[in-house]
Amino acid sequence: MNLMQVMVEAFRAMNANRLRTALTMLGIIIGITSVVLMLAVGDSAKKFISKELEVLGSNLMIVSPGANRTQGVRARSGTAPSLSIEDAEALNELPSLNGAAAALQGFFQITAGNDNSNNAVLGITPEMFTVRNWKVAQGAAFSDSDIRSASRIVVIGKKVAEQFFYKSEPVGQYLRIDNVPFQVSGVLEGEGRSFDGGDVGDMVLVPITTARATLIRSPFPRNVHYLIAQGKNDKQMADAQEDIKEMLRDRHRIRGEQEDDFRIDNLASIAEAGAKISTGLAALLGAIGAISLIVGGIGIMNIMLVSVTERTREIGIRMAIGARPRDVLLQFLTEAVVICLVGGMVGVLLASLGAAGITATGKITVDIGWDAVLIACAFSSFVGIFFGFYPARRAASLLPVDCLRYE
Known about the structure:
Blueprint: H1 3-16, H2 18-56, E1 60-65, E2 69-70, E3 73-74, H3 85-91, E4 97-112, E5 115-124, H4 127-131, E6 136-139, H5 144-149, E7 153-156, H6 158-164, E8 174-177, E9 180-188, E10 204-207, H7 208-215, E11 226-231, H8 237-251, E12 262-266, H9 267-310, H10 312-320, H11 325-360, H12 370-396, H13 400-405
Parallel strand pairs: 5-10, 7-9
Antiparallel strand pairs: 1-11, 1-12, 2-3, 4-5, 4-8, 4-11, 6-9, 7-10, 8-9
Helix pairs in contact: 1-11, 2-9, 2-11, 2-12, 9-11, 9-12, 11-12
């Protein structure tokens, strides 16, 4: 028999016992669906994290104030007024950084005409545009002279511009922030999530000196809410972080074993941890799918052994008319592989439907790649050969005389 005849016989054998064949495939279908879907979810999660990291900046660090202590009790982080604009200016001198910028933040009512909303407002220095890789699509960003003169100008995000100045040119128009008029000098390019959970399209940016003078009044006039620093090299973030720590400890006169009055968060390490978690989760669920494959393979072995017993006379007749043991071995081994491949195809189809369902939620896009399909086919073939070999060998080792006498 040639390979085509063997395949035809395999499908005839499967068709003769369709219910049993379907139940036999069930373990393979569940296993392949799990493996393919989890591989796709893991890969999509990595891509999602990489995309978010591009928006955040893979070489960014957030320097936050430390915590006050009252009678030995530590308050929440950020309560100690320990960071200043001068700290950001000093960090700009470090060779391991591209730059650093200070920021003040508050929530205010924004109005223009009859429209109003509550938005986060950031008071920043011009360096922030470079550090955060923000581009101005219309108009212009702040300058050092705007900082010195505490100009009442504002740079807004794309969504804010569409909300307040729909079908009109926003640059040159006026917004009122906490009832203080600000002239729009520019509109940021693009949209996307920010490290603080906001959206670039919702940004409202004013000069930091203006924010301090008119919006965010504090008993500590030189202090800021946080600093953003950008490292020069993604691979040397640990060194840059250590340089920042040494610089700030020296400026804040922290000696010896004294505790830092600030905290440094490395966004790259946070994203790396998230990638490891998603990879580990995908591996765990993939392992569960692999266990399903093993269970399905054992089921195939049992069913094939039953099939060998049921078809003993058929085996004897085939051998009596000239079939060799290797022909019988090939026939039963092909049946096992075909069952696994068909089950694998159904599993890939179900995984594709699952991926489409996850994508439809809008939370994350899950794509089934050709590599996942090839892995599924390879796994299916391996399971069929591994678990089908023993029943096929048992069938091939039967003697024709014993087979013909079998009732």
